[in-house]
Write a structure and sequence with these properties.
This protein is an all-alpha fold. The protein has one domain. Helix 2 packs across helix 7 and helix 3 packs parallel to helix 11. The longest helix has 36 residues.
Length: 395
């Protein structure tokens, strides 16, 4: 049953990444022609936003399940093992996407391509980016995954999709600290509690982080619910307890009922949507896998690479083809957008075989660790004595 649910969540992750790709293709190429006041824009905004919410719920489930399995296998939380697995999952695609994003911005600026000074033309109703620049503060914030989480920081302009990754990574850290704080035999328990208090104080004014942590907690609640084999009749009550912090925010802070920053509807509606989503996840544990699930699971193998790499590819293609695109017919535009979508899917699938191959990166890391151990071991020092002959009076 557990593996069945995991495959279904993988399928949802794959389709969510695909939805975000479609939404950004629409944002970059279609909205400049049609404008913002269209059904097309509202539809894809909603689809992409709730796809991102699905990412947070799935992440909450996966990370909590990983921590529970970590504790079951080791008797207590093994911090090194958890951090290693997260690093091998997150860093290779992230470093590649960040490097490519910086390269795209540098190339556009250096060669004065379209977008170096501005994208908008008299024929455009809208542009996704006014121009391409490199703000060093945003570059550093994105590189250290603090963009948006730390007040006053932003995401690198050439890869807007990275805004959510920083929130997720910080939530990974919070989850680990909470797990360690609940470990009575851990010597670092009180250090974890103190760290949680400091971070909560630091992020107390970041309402968006608090809001997404609520959505993330739904997935965590589902993992805990399944771990303890709670009965189905308690599940609605469990979800209600998870939603309680968000409901309190709605009650004491009326402005949070207004539309949110990323094109969402409102916090109460989002809470209802995520509650419904989590309930469906629970039901999916008993549903049989079908062709749609298998296709989504196949897409999920490259979904992370697709999510964090598609944006700079779209920006680069927009720089090359924007002016030509405006003069094409509807049929030519449709063929072009279909080709762009397939090209990005193909690139992501090929790169994911390397970037998301944790076995490969784990082997590389082990090789480096063993090499460093051999060089620092006493035996290696005897085999490879000090080669600085100047200390031996070499003439």
């Amino acid at each position: 049953m557990e593996s069945n649910l995991s495959l279904k969540l993988d399928a949802l992750r794959g389709y969510s990444a695909l939805a975000v790709l479609f939404a950004h293709v629409n944002q970059w190429f279609v909205l400049p022609v049609t404008g913002l006041q269209t059904t097309n824009r509202y539809f894809w905004n909603a689809i992409s936003y709730y796809a991102v919410l699905a990412f947070f719920v799935i992440s909450g489930y996966v990370i909590t399940h990983s921590l529970l399995e970590n504790r079951r296998k080791n008797g207590q939380i093994n911090k090194a093992s958890f951090l290693r697995s997260r690093a091998l999952r997150i860093l290779p695609p992230f470093i590649a996407a960040l490097g490519f994003s910086i390269l795209v911005a540098t190339a556009i600026q250096h060669y004065s391509l379209h977008g170096a000074t501005g994208f908008r033309t008299p024929a455009d109703f809208y542009v996704a980016r006014h121009n391409v620049t490199l703000n060093l503060r945003d570059v550093w914030a994105t590189a250290f995954l603090s963009n948006g989480v730390i007040p006053g920081t932003g995401t690198i302009v050439t890869n807007g999709a990275l805004w959510s990754l920083s929130y997720e990574v910080w939530l990974y850290g919070f989850a680990l600290l909470i797990a360690l704080a609940c470990e009575p035999k851990q010597r670092s328990r009180w250090i974890s509690i103190a760290t949680l208090a400091v971070l909560a104080l630091l992020l107390r004014k970041n309402q968006l982080f608090f809001e997404y942590s609520i959505y993330w907690a739904y997935g965590a609640a589902l993992a805990l619910y399944l771990h303890f084999n709670a009965r189905w009749r308690f599940f609605p009550l469990f979800l209600g307890l998870v939603a309680l912090p968000g409901l309190i925010v709605c009650a004491v802070s009326p402005q949070r009922i207004l539309p949110l920053n990323h094109g969402a509807l409102s916090l109460p509606i989002n809470l209802f949507a995520v509650t419904l989503m989590t309930g469906v996840f629970r039901l999916q544990q008993k549903w049989k896998l079908g062709p749609i699930d298998r296709l989504g699971a196949f897409l999920s193998k490259s979904s992370y690479t697709l999510y964090i790499l598609h944006f700079p590819i779209l920006l680069l293609l927009f720089s090359f083809f924007h002016l030509r695109f405006l003069g094409w017919s509807t049929a030519e535009r449709s063929c072009f957008l279909g080709g762009v979508t397939l090209l990005i899917l193909l690139i992501s699938s090929l790169l994911a075989r390397v970037l998301e191959n944790r076995t490969l990166w784990n082997s590389a890391l082990l090789f480096i660790e063993n090499s460093l151990k051999e060089r620092s071991s006493p035996d290696s020092k005897r085999m490879f004595p000090d080669k600085d002959l100047s200390k031996r009076g070499r003439p």
